[in-house]
Amino acid sequence: MRSVVYPGTFDPITNGHTDLVARAAHLCDRVVVAVARDTGKETTFTIEQRVALAEHVCNGLGNVEVVAFSGLLVDFARHMQVHVIMRGLRAVSDFEYEFQLAGMNRRMAPDIETLFLTPAEQYAYISSSLVKEIARLGGDVSTFVPPAVHAALRKRFG
């Protein structure tokens, strides 16, 4: 069985994230969307809300499971019996950080590989941070996020 773990804060999950999940679901037998508890930053949505939104958005993909996790990603991957970490690269600016992260993970867990996917062109500029900022300022984010996420952002920011 080919499995992949796709980690992130998913605060909130965007159309870019869902594009990568759907594409990974076609490539792999099992996709674990790993929602990080330990983000190092204050989140807009609780871990329970982030997991619920991701589950709702991924509901139609039978080989995708959404799980909250804490601690080191490589430990979580081993616990889930997954040997591939998938990361998204939107732009060259993402590469340096992701390359460093992949190197650290490889050093801690040489048996776990990192796979990079790029989102479809129409999603390459979308980030959760920008979506939240636009929503907070009253802008329309409906083209950047799934409908359930749009509703959750409207409820959160009014």
Structure notes:
- There is one protein chain.
- The protein is of the alpha/beta class and 158 residues long.
- Helices cover 43% and strands 18% of the residues.
- The strands form two sheets. It has a three-stranded parallel β-sheet. Strands 4-5 form a two-stranded parallel sheet.
- Helix 1 (15-27) links the parallel strand 1 and strand 2.
- The chain is globular.
- It starts with a strand and ends with a helix.
- Homohexamer.
- It comes from Thiohalocapsa halophila.
Cα end-to-end separation: 44 Å
What structural class do the secondary elements suggest? Answer: alpha/beta
Helical fraction equals: 40-55%
**Overall geometry:** globular
Average per-residue pLDDT, rounded, comes to 95
Strand order of the largest sheet: 1-2-3
> How many helices does DSSP assign?
6
Give the amount of beta strand, in percent: 15-25%
State the low-pLDDT regions, or none.
none
Assembly state: single chain
Rg (C-alpha, Å): 15 Å
Quantity of strands, as a count = 5
Main sheet makeup: 3 strands, parallel
Order of helices and strands: EHEHEHEHEHH
Summarize the entry for a quick read.
The protein has helices at 15-27, 47-57, 73-79, 92-108, 128-136, 147-157, and strands at residues 3-8, 30-36, 64-69, 84-88, 113-117. It is an alpha/beta fold and 158 residues long.
